[in-house]
Amino acid sequence: MSFLAQSPVASSSSLLDYGIAGGVILALFGLLLHVLKEHKGERKAWQEEASTRARAHEKCLTVSNQVQKELTVAVVELTTQSRQSAALQMTMREEQIRAAAAAAAANPH
User: Fold this and answer.
1) What is this structure's pTM?
2) Are 15 and 9 in contact (CB under 8 A)?
3) Distance CA 21, CA 29 (A)
């Protein structure tokens, strides 16, 4: 005979054949179903709260991304203006040096 043929599961015809262990397992399963059924409203409220938090988080990320893009554009503009200003100052300084050199050459003491 095989092991399965000798086991009580294979030869049982009712739940009573499983004894105390079967009763405990059945009671735990029933308790689990009861808890799931009773807390269905709470789980729904938790899911709604979580989805509300997720939407708020997405909104914050959207605003943050928009602000970051605006700051990037502002920094690029300031960098461009700074480069243009530096080039203009360099040109003006070169013109001042040329004018001073021309004045010094035209007026030897």
Assistant:
1) 0.45
2) no
3) 12
